Amino acid sequence: MIAPAVTLEIEQSLSERGILMSGGSSDRCEVLTISQGRYKAEINTFGGGIKSLSFDNKPLTETYSDSDNPPLSSGVVLAPWPNRTADGAFVYAGQRYQLELTEPARNNAIHGLVHNRLWTIAKHSQDGAVLKISLGTGQGWPWPVEIEAEYLLKDDGLHAHFRAFGTGPFGWGWHTYLSPLGEEVDRAVLTLGVDQELPLGERNLPVGERTSLSLPLGTGVPIAGHLLDNCYYASNGPVRATVAVDGRGVAMECSDNVRWFQVFTPDSAWGMPYPGRDRAIAIEPMTVPPNALNTGINSIDVHEHFECSVRISAL
């Protein structure tokens, strides 16, 4: 547990930067448009992620109509933990904490604490935007932390940089749905530079040690016919993923500290279609696996910070 003096130091530091317990600047979300060359993106202050990304007006990500309610967590940032925490409970530094059960059907806490909150606009220009959000000492999470998402369009795609300042346990993820230039996802081939799979049980929690891959993702797998909600790991980075039809589509490249990936296919077959498309594919980069608050998670220090990056581009 963090000593009171250390917690006070963190709160004072974050307060001086004007971000302690901050959220959006209004009661409703704002959608920021950025563009550069052949790329265009929309950044949503609800959830701090991307609402859309396109190349020559063809989509590289799935989008949605209701900006206040991204379907199936489309495009949102996942922190200070991604994925799931079993029973919403964990022990850190000898102290037990209880999170709200946000996936009650499976008795889990899911997707962290910032995916359904308004973020503050720190900067907005023609080709970029920076959003920030801060967590204070709320229920189940007593560690103040500032999280920043920077989105910048260049001629080679969208460069997304994520940073966190504070202390305590911290994990990051991004719930991105990739689109092969608007083609039906079942016409596409998925490649993902991973070499291990983490078996998950009925609650989508780990049920064993990492194993070899059940699908040859490194060389490419046709998406058609697969219902996926699987977790993968890469022994070596940086990791690259592609979703493409006849070699044309979208690529995602992650910094070396992003080695975990949840791959999820919305489908009406299991009651979770993506609105307007039914089938879609989420490639969720993460720095830690599901239930990491219970199985081991990285920490950040008040004098340090977390940082990772992702680039999404057209093929």
From TrEMBL:
Protein name, UniProt field: Aldose 1-epimerase
The gene coding this protein: galM
Gene3D superfamilies cross-referenced by the UniProt entry: 2.70.98.10
